[in-house]
């Protein structure tokens, strides 16, 4: 009994503990102690993302500013704006900012459509997962969603740019084609030339705007105001390597060059290669107001932009490639996930040394068992031993008599 008591006292056993309908606090406490062995089966193993995640976006201020409003576009528009020199801001400003408004709207629509799909994704978790694992998994899914959304939008814009350039679409701004009056004896008397313009501005050095082929996507020249030209008829060069130069645009200097404004072969290219730095600066904006005097809209109707995570010299193409997003705000609720999972119980196993009550119970059980068994077994054993002993004594008593008879018998013989 002593040996058994010592053995039971020093032994341990693996027990399974079950907690019914655990709260989140109980689960988190158990997770800290038994993270590797804790199991809490989910009642609902498939949960849609919209049950526990909410995503908001803060867009660049340009997409909610006065500069994409219809009022600003009307302010820039003039019925004779095609008479301005091609590098004049007034020539293509209306198309640039109209395009910018469309890009902002398309970016927001792309995000809204992809969020609907993202929210419908099902999170499959047969067992409740920890807060840390949950956050890591959801953040990983979100980063994948963000990357795919950006790539989708960028590829869409690349497609439209490639279609416009490679199909040699004519720009209504006359920036990639020039229409000139040829000799009246020619048939037809009006010719259209694809532009590889040699412009001379601010110096005697030639600056080329090459709108041939795919080079038109990267070709650009600074934009500004050319107040010395009352009316512009056609390009400074009628065609690639042409020597026909319009005297009204040859060796001309810009009156003002606007910082960050560039003119490309198409309004889209002009916009994407430009920056917004002029619209963060009140002085620069006042210069624009001073040269646009045909509108009845008051210039004080428009406010400058505030600073953003994108520095003012950042190209609009770079901002567009980020979907004009200043910040992603993602709210992940582990509480909502826990409530959707609804674990009915949590279970874990642990090794535990036998307590005093268990030792006492085992000793009593052993004692009771021995008492019952031995009370029946011992009388049988004792009876058996006594019989054996009696037989041994009986044999001993009979042995001397037989020996004497044998001895006497021998003597007589």
Tally of strands: 12
Task: Give me the strand/helix succession.
Answer: HEHEEHHEHEEEEEEHHHEHEH
Radius of gyration over alpha carbons? 48 Å
* Largest sheet report: 2 strands, antiparallel
Structural class: alpha+beta
Query: What percent of the residues sit in helical stretches (DSSP H or I)?
Result: 40-55%
DSSP helix count? 10
Commentary on this structure:
It contains 10 helices and 12 strands. It has 413 residues and is of the alpha+beta class. It has 2 domains: 280 residues, no CATH class; 58 residues. The protein has a two-stranded antiparallel sheet with strand order 1-12. The longest helix is centred in the C-terminal third of the chain and has 57 residues. The radius of gyration is 48 Å and the shape is rod-shaped. About 8% of the residues have low confidence.
At a glance:
This protein has 413 residues and is an alpha+beta fold. The chain has ten helices and twelve strands.
What's the arrangement of secondary structure elements?
Elements: H1 2-10, E1 12-20, H2 24-33, E2 46-48, E3 53-59, H3 70-76, H4 89-119, E4 122-124, H5 131-166, E5 177-181, E6 190-194, E7 196-199, E8 207-210, E9 221-225, E10 256-263, H6 267-273, H7 282-291, H8 316-321, E11 325-332, H9 334-341, E12 345-353, H10 356-412
Antiparallel strand pairs: 1-12, 2-4, 3-11, 5-6, 7-8, 9-10
Keywords:
413 residues; alpha+beta; 2 domains; two-stranded antiparallel sheet
